[in-house]
Amino acid sequence: MALCERNNDELCALFIDLDGFKAVNDTLGHAAGDQLLREVSQRIAKACRTSDICSRLGGDEFAVALIHSSLEQSRVFATRLVELISQPYFLDGHRAEVSASIGVSHFPGTATDVDTLLRKADQAMYGAKAAGKRRVRTAI
Predict the structure, then answer these.
(1) Active-site residues: which are they?
(2) What would the pLDDT profile of 41-50 be if each residue is shown by its tens digit?
């Protein structure tokens, strides 16, 4: 973030939570749930640029830091991620479907420090879930 500030650059944080993961875990078992998380991680990583930072935070939550990305570019990317994550998975011969709710926050617009950037993205993600899931919401 300090580098972005020095270079007068933008940074966006995406907070991603899977919709329907618990149902997959409950019906197909924890091994299938673990496989699903690995496949979601791979889809996210393949969609990201080499300059982006992708991370699994724990459970079914992920984060992506988009460096050199405007708020609008990040919203477009997040919408593509929702579609990519929502495509079917085949786990040990069983078809499984999950979707994603994504919150987006922006530096310098939404936050001026990392903790606030992530907190705002997390809050926006909960707004996406409350609005019906499989959505992208921007932090205010």
Answers:
(1) 60
(2) 999 999 999 9
